[in-house]
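Hello Y.,

Per our agreement to keep a running log of every chain we model this quarter, I'm adding this entry. I've kept the format consistent with earlier entries: sequence first, then predicted structure.
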Amino acid sequence: MELESLTVRTAIDGLRKRQFSSVELTRAVLDAITARDGVIGAYLWVDEADALKQAASADAARAGGADALLLGVPLAIKDILNVEGQPCTCASKILAGYRAPYDATVIARLREAGAVFAGRTNLDEFAMGSTTENSAIQLTRNPAALDRVPGGSSGGSAAAVAGGMALAALGTDTGGSIRQPASFCGCVGLKPSYGRVSRYGLVAFASSLDQIGPMTQTVEDAALLLGVMAGRDPHDATTLDRAVPNYAAALGGDLKGLRLGLPKEYFVAGLDPEVAQRVQEAVESCRRCGAEIVEVSLPHTEYAVATYYILASAEASANLARFDGVRYGHRSAVAAGTPLEMYLNTRAEGFGREVKRRIILGTYVLSSGYYDAYYTHAQRVRTLIRRDFESAFMQCDALLTPVSPDPAYLIGATAEDPLKAYLIDIFTVTANLAGICGLSVPCGTTPAGLPVGLQVLAPAFDEGTLLRIGHVYEQVREVRS
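Predicted structure for the entry above:
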């Protein structure tokens, strides 16, 4: 039995039956990281001694009668979430030397459920990117094709799961940063509804768009982790006080009685034909499972990318103002005559090119004379996009779409063309703008062996329907290439 390849569910069952210990399971994951990550580059930080200490504590707790859901299950954490005592670099030079003084709420809840934290994964710097090439620390490769990107910004988490170096991982999704790398690498990625999962302890990129979610091998595993993480948090005023269903227990059955919509704007010229074919095959599988398939329209989709990058960059410019070299992280060693010179030197040295680009763009659209022309207008278009989804969900229960217009890109393919990189997000940013939930489920590969993902979108706080659809499809999926 290759313990590092277990799903979260099989790991839970095996630990409860004493088929193996948490130390043995964690050791297997750590050995897989040692054997494989030198090529893939998914992890930024691993403390083997600490991970094994956590695992030994879990084994001792189980021997004493404890039986928390995730007791002894090792997980990987995107290096943008605070875990007490661990570094949190956000893959940026500007946070060099910083160690988190507290646990993010999702970490505290996973810790209470008994999870072991095995390591921290790579990302685009401050989660700004779609390929993980914007990391200031290292390159991450796609386990399915080492000359391809893993997607982003949660590329390290996706590569760890798909590469057999993590049973599951946490990612964050501001404009598709869980769903797109899950699609590129061939794993499951869940973006919860805005307000379903606390953002406390997440280093903010764009506060009205960010969400934390699981990246897993199966839909059931995503349901299990979401059930642990979700719920009201007094530390995050944007979380809603709504009951958290037992998502995993509700899985099963078929799709009879569900109407699934195909947005015509998501099946257009420019969509890679191999991606289109795999998604259409998945749609037909859902039809055979009893779903009624209907065409719907999201007419403002063409404005989504521009709207997203105006709003996300504006929020980023405000959120990243706190990184000034005064309280923590990198401070420039260049002699400065004034505090302002020190700030300028520190930020020039500490931030990478893409982060600087977005700070400049965000500052510009918030500046006097341009605020109404860009930021205010983008907020109005965001409202129209949300209303598009509200209208569509009056006609159907959920939507089926591609995750990305293309499979994983060659490393370096978008390095000198930021606009091309931004357009990768066309099918994912809309869910963040509207605050709804989204799921990426593998739906086969291209003839070249590159994974393709099916995106399922459901109304806000209807993760139960989202996961049900993904799970039913997963059970009947025929992997073709």
